[in-house]
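Thread: Replication factor-A protein 1 N-terminal domain-containing protein, structure

OP (GT): Posting the sequence first so everyone is looking at the same thing. Length is 93 residues per the record. Can we get the structure tokens written out before standup tomorrow? I want them in the notebook alongside the other entries.
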Amino acid sequence: MSFDVVGIVITVKSIFSNPTSKRRKVIIVNKEFDQLLVTLRGDLAEIEGASLKILKDTKPVVALLSVIGRNYLGEFQLSTKSSTLVLMNPEIP
């Protein structure tokens, strides 16, 4: 199941890469102040992840469109997929 999430970026980890994949962990806080772990994958980890790392001290708002949610080791986590859009500081009505 995929869905959309909006939150404030509080942590951006360094990129992890190996010959077959790239990943970057990002922690966001939603409007209920729940911390959510998001794994950016592929080009999103490299490009958008680098932009978020630069902006993280300004606590940017990020909208993640079409992410996958799952429980892993008892923790709810979000992960991007090839169709995920990452919007930084979007205009929200």
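GT: Both are above now. Quick notes for whoever picks this up: The chain has a mean pLDDT of 94. The chain is about 15% helix and 55% strand.
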